[in-house]
Amino acid sequence: MVTICDSAAEAVADVADGSTVLVGGFGPAGMPFTLIDALIDQGATDLTVVSNNAGNADVGLAALLAKGRVRKVVCSYPRQVDSWVFDALYREGRIELELVPQGNLAERMRAAGAGIGAFFCPTGVGTPLAEGKETREIDGRTYVLEMPIKGDVALVCAHRADRAGNLVYRRTARNFGPVMATAAATTVVQVSEVVDVGEIDPEVVVTPGIYVDRVVVA
Amino acid sequence: MVTICDSAAEAVADVADGSTVLVGGFGPAGMPFTLIDALIDQGATDLTVVSNNAGNADVGLAALLAKGRVRKVVCSYPRQVDSWVFDALYREGRIELELVPQGNLAERMRAAGAGIGAFFCPTGVGTPLAEGKETREIDGRTYVLEMPIKGDVALVCAHRADRAGNLVYRRTARNFGPVMATAAATTVVQVSEVVDVGEIDPEVVVTPGIYVDRVVVA
Amino acid sequence: MSAARTKEQIAAAIARDIPAGSFVNLGIGQPTLVADHLPPGSGVVLHTENGMLGMGPAARGGPDDPLDPDLTNAGKIPVTALPGASYFHQADSFAMMRGGHLDVCVLGAFQVSVRGDLANWHTGEPDAIPAVGGAMDLAIGAKQVFVMMTLFANDGTPKLVPTCTYPLTGLGCVSRLYTDLATFEVGAGGVRLLEAFGTTRDELTERLGVDLG
Amino acid sequence: MSAARTKEQIAAAIARDIPAGSFVNLGIGQPTLVADHLPPGSGVVLHTENGMLGMGPAARGGPDDPLDPDLTNAGKIPVTALPGASYFHQADSFAMMRGGHLDVCVLGAFQVSVRGDLANWHTGEPDAIPAVGGAMDLAIGAKQVFVMMTLFANDGTPKLVPTCTYPLTGLGCVSRLYTDLATFEVGAGGVRLLEAFGTTRDELTERLGVDLG
What we know:
The complex is a heterotetramer, with 2 copies of chain A and 2 copies of chain C.
Chain A: E1 3-4, H1 8-11, E2 20-23, H2 33-42, E3 47-50, H3 61-66, E4 70-75, H4 84-91, E5 96-99, H5 102-114, E6 118-121, E7 135-138, E8 141-146, E9 151-157, E10 160-162, E11 167-168, H6 177-183, E12 184-191, E13 193-195, E14 214-217
Parallel strand pairs in A: 1-14, 2-3, 2-9, 3-4, 4-5, 9-12, 10-13, 12-14
Antiparallel strand pairs in A: 6-8, 7-8, 10-11
Chain C: H1 7-17, E1 23-26, E2 45-48, E3 52-58, E4 79-87, H2 90-98, E5 104-107, E6 111-113, E7 118-119, H3 135-141, E8 144-148, E9 160-161, E10 176-178, E11 182-185, E12 192-196, H4 201-208
Parallel strand pairs in C: 1-2, 1-5, 5-8, 6-9, 8-10
Antiparallel strand pairs in C: 2-3, 3-4, 6-7, 10-11, 11-12
Helix pairs in contact in C: 2-3
């Protein structure tokens, strides 16, 4: 059952130290900035963050990293022109990196949300990112066994929620939100607006409310 | 690239004998009746049909079965109050049945469409439907290895298409359509109407046109 | 001593045990009766595995409520959609189930074992045409699986058994068993009688031939 | 003898080889130039792996075409959407790629081997911060992978090689290689020179040190 929170602080109040936090966004698009700021204020530390990138400039995920709250980043593309916060932490050996091809990152979270125990994936076969992983030939093609990535908390940015937690997104800001919402024990969503139940057409709901625990307008 | 066909006959003209045909629908909802009738007229035989059910009454899939065109049915729920056509063929030993739990049926087709080689699934563990299949314990839970189901042709019923093949469905008639559209080499869709490109909001497209080969108004 | 429960009374008992705001799947047949006993304002959201959350009551087919062949439940009966509903395709619907997002699933059964094994899809008779539908997915997917059934078959055979003899639907998946004569907890720790109706613990122990905890 | 090709000429050559109506992903960097050379009415639909089909040109940021931070390409550059576009989430976007639904993908490269192995994500330098993004998914997903690059590095080292020395992106995935000096087919059967620009087969054979088929 979804709770419409009065503040982002309330929405992230119970994130525990050591949590695995799934953070939506592809660069800034779909990044839940307000929720991350609230998480910085909340103080949880020793976090594992799963996100496509490792923060841009000095805001959002980069700000969380700068505060030293993140032990490990699981992502596909940490190095960007404006990823100086991550870059410095990494070079200083102060943050761990698990690099995952972008599609595997998405599919591993989907597997977690869909109750799939593991899956054979063709991506990365023969590359350093598949080293040490089980492989198998199926119908003449080689696959790597990939495991689910489950979150304790997902922080997601959507466009609109109804009071039942049904979500729609906006353009390519949709990116990781729908998948992360399925893959975390608790899903917290920031939206531009909350509307009454019945105001989102059932045909266009992207994330059904069953996946959403808390919503806050940001 | 999608072809808007003038007739259902044109849309199914090249279905070959021995094909695996994915047929949408959950009972009558979402069943592509017009395409099936055209397939009956077209004459392809020795087919393997993948569908949730094995036909209702004497129409649609049941009519195809009654013509003796189907060698094997892969489905989750053949036996229904009005499945007399299948029931008789089965009891006479004239049709083969592969029974698959409904979620595995959907996920195995999704895997085919998504390039997943195989997946470990918790459904059916310890039951007759998992007999002879590889199992593995992962994180304390037992899973069965399930393989993709790929179609030569998918016959799908959607609500509306644009001329680029983007599809929207109607209510629970959506069911297997979007998954089957991804899992077949050729996807043929019957719709209530075809609209111009740009008339379906990009946010609400359920099946992007990349998955659609032929569309016919029925 | 109270009387044995009617189907409606069993359904009402199950409805009382479903927490407010739960996401629930009600299996085909008797379990659908549970919907009628959910209190107004419970906030319980019904899932139907053919692709909808927020399922409403069966459609009546009147002028305000026409039967829509595109809007059916898992039993292929025309139903309605409540405000706040959503539609999704089969892979998404079963991902929702398999991923453990439903709170409660209520199923019928041929047999339930004291350890919570479920047999509800196939009598195993050689001439029966097997059909499974979503039963196996539902059995292992929901956080809690409640079974609703009569405790004895028409011929008097117990349906709560030490070990299922019918083909299994799922292993150790049932948590609670609601019957005409009693409610039980089942699972890894064995069976425990919670309440009896029109009978006694001793009578049940004797008729079932199992230790009732 | 014609001259070596410019980036624009390479992009134009690739655009000519993309069949009308194809679904195409253009990698970050030089491959994006290909879009400018697709003829009007080609019906080519561009995919961007962050979740859209039907991507249009970069947004110019004028009053009729405002920059929208929610509508970007895989390089995080604001873009536009064409009529007939669709949005989808990351698991769906990569299912589309991995499932072999894209016709052509155009990528840059550090190295391509004669058998079509691709190295384009990591120089392998010990102090480099590795980043892969969707490169490995794109490499193995599309029906055909075209690579666009200069044939030699700035220091004169060949980038078409018998065996990649940089960390691999994908095995045997490249089908065609478009460079300033030549176009090649690569794959299981080895490399085959299709066309040379500003150089000759003999010169190329000598500089590359490989049999050009």
